[in-house]
Amino acid sequence: MSLLRVEGLGIDFGGLRAVHDVGFSVGPGEIVSVIGPNGAGKTTLFNMISGLYLPGRGRVSLDGADVTGMEPHLLAARGLSRTFQNLQIFQAMSVLENVAAGHHLHEKGPVIADMLSLPSSRRRSRQTRDSAHALLERVGLARAAEHEAGSLSYGALKRLEIARALALEPRVLLLDEPAAGCNAVETEEIDRLVAEVAAGGVAVLLVEHDMRMVMRISSHIVVLDHGEKIAEGEPASIARNPRVIEAYLGAQAGEANDAVG
Ligand SMILES: Nc1ncnc2c1ncn2[C@@H]1O[C@H](COP(=O)(O)OP(=O)(O)O)[C@@H](O)[C@H]1O
Ligand SMILES: [Mg+2]
Known about the structure:
This protein is 42% helix and 23% strand. By secondary structure, it is of the alpha/beta class. The chain has two domains: 1-79 and 170-261, Rossmann fold, CATH 3.40.50.300; 89-168, no CATH class. It binds adenosine-5'-diphosphate and magnesium ion.
């Protein structure tokens, strides 16, 4: 069974074929990684799947339903959530409020009830705070709940962004370079967190440059080059694939093979 399925997906920007005929699927509990050189089309692929870009060709399905071209908030309501390559955190808000902002998208209560501060909405905001706290606990940021988000270390901000994406209670989670700019210890924390999320049954689609992390946690790997899928398979076979080594791994190949063991 696949929760997320992508078929023949493509988009052009002017004359540039940014993504062309890409297909793969992600099942519950799986971590599928998309790798490839800068400009290969990874973020563009994410933008099409998450509804930011309207695909020029192909199809995206969520749990069997065609959701191609659906707007991000509707996709979120159907259980698809994402983080961004460039952090999108509200720096001046508290850590807790950032996560609560994620919950808010998920809440179904009428806005008017919030404005009038009715008991039902007060109860809801208490529930929001409680579940935001539980998520911060899960990503190791509970003690920083009341701190200004802007005061966090980079690695902590990356985990905060994951917590906010999890606030939507996604069934499918897209992570665009969650470990970028993180040191080895922070990367391992993110690594463990992503593995835990998947173990809970979420389908995870990951773009990440840290090959050790990719090789360690991926169920399988999709390799893009110039917008096209040039390989797909289990980490060990990808690390040995001559086309992948030529297009991308190059000098990283030794390191990647080490990580596979
Ligand atoms: N909004 C856009 N308009 C025009 N070109 C774009 C746009 N977004 C991405 N591109 C181009 O599409 C290609 C793929 O980019 P991107 O998906 O960001 O690659 P990656 O994430 O793999 O580094 C690049 O050549 C990039 O310049
Ligand atoms: Mg990118």
